[in-house]
Write a structure and sequence with these properties.
Blueprint lengths: L7 E6 H5 L3 H12 L3 E6 L5 H18 L2 E5 L2 H6 L4 E4 L6 H8 L4 E6 L2 H10 L3 E4 L17 H7 L2 H6 L3 E4 L7 H6 L4 E4 L1 H4 L4 H16 L1
Amino acid sequence: MISRPPRLHVIATGAVAADERLAFTGGRLLECCGPGIALHIRLRGAPARRTFELASSLTAIAEEAGAWLVVNERLDIALAAAAQAVQLGRDAIGVEDANRLAGGHLAVGASVHSGREAERAAEAGADYLVVGTIYPTVSHPGRPGAGPELIRRCASGTVVNRARTPLLAIGGIDADRIAAVAGAGAYGVAVVRAVWDSEDPVRAAARLSKKIEGAFG
């Protein structure tokens, strides 16, 4: 049976994910925050071997710490590396097919951007949903944030509500905005810059974890 996801998801993408030091820093993040954290790796365009090797090394650390290592978009690599979860975007394999191929060996998350998408993903059997974009972010220039109301709309969906599908807010989330998305019905948050823009990513993640404990209980 797939367990409930951690409440803090830290996404390594772009230059951060490609940095050879991620194996070390990512390992420290997992050890520091333990069961409260999921580390995502999103290496778009990278050789499959590089992604597999990185995922394999971090999966072992995550398992020992009780944390999650999540491979974004590549179900094959997530399974081969024995990761705890795979995160599916719009261009990835569908949730239903991912669940069929995974055979219950890992959690399947889906990225959604509307109440309708959330309902479809929950109906297909997603174990959790990453919902955004909540606040404006430099990774999506020119796109206004939907605000915590998007979380509220997704949480009120019939299927999401019935399945009690965890919703993770993403997009411009920092420590000061955690309470707002928690109040709107989020289960947790997913962040990028709030951790990686810090001079000390491990300390930044630890501060977010503490804030999350206070907001979500």
